[in-house]
Amino acid sequence: MVLHVKGRVLVGPEDVRDELWVVGGRVTFTRPALAGDVRTVTGWALPGLVDAHCHVGLDAHGAVDAETSEKQALTDRDAGTLLIRDAGSAADTRWIDDREDLPKIIRAGRHIARTRRYIRNYAHEIEPSDLVAYVGREARRGDGWVKLVGDWIDREAGDLTSCWPRAEVEAAIAEAHRLGARVTAHCFAEDSLRDLVEAGIDCIEHATGLTEDTIPLFAERGVAIVPTLVNIATFPGLAAGGEGKFPRWADHMRRLHARRYDTVRAAYDAGIPVFVGTDAGGSLAHGLVADEVAELVAAGIPPVAALSATSWAARTWLGRPGLEEGAPADLVVYEDDPRADVRVLAAPRRVIVNGRVIE
Asked: pTM of the entire structure?
């Protein structure tokens, strides 16, 4: 069957077509010879949304089974997320690649954390002397990304502190790049950022610790951030639960939360690439991509830029096609123009994966 998508097709923020066709699961802008059934879908079409920080195969306690992983992937798909950068998972989700009805996943392998400095059952927990070896291992296992835990609560200090010495980080990132992988890191606090960026890191997750001292460095080096604002919204609750043991940490988390919007807007204004990620799969639900785009707009990012951060720009950054000739037909169709109001993203009219309309 041939699929005909008509109305307004947002190939890019300013590149709007009247229609596209799907033949053999692929996009074409050339009207095909119509010898069989044709199904027509109307509305505003957008490339399948991107969640650049998502954890399929993970919950609050660690790896989950295939049935749970499938439910997570289906929830993301039904929300319009058709491309996921899985920013660390202890589960093997390669079987998803064989499913034509599920989102495409770019894996960063398993988190790499300092011993007893991250969530139990999530990460390889190692010492700095082993960092290069483990980064090399995950670079070979992943899909072009490696995920470090750059900072976490230090129980002796009672606050967030950096996890890795500068020399080991430099060597590890160099090894990942030698193997053709990019490196990202979980970072809440301020102290770890300069060393990671100067060591050549490609991306920072959360990035709540950005300041007027480090924002220019990120911009100069072209280091992207994925703010995960729907996750940062949980900081006050986390602080309340931990302030009895770690009052300094709790106060720090509240301060990072209080300036979260200012931090993201300052990063965007400085020219730092900003992308959408929800941090789903730990303690957060899946399917929150529309909420995260709305949070970027609340932070002061222009709506079209926030939309691009989950569509055109995000796909380019991850090296995956959008709505272009011959590309897999992964798209979402909406009732209204999402450029005018990003809240439209919360209600897809149709989700199309590999040319199949999801009913």
From this structure: 0.97
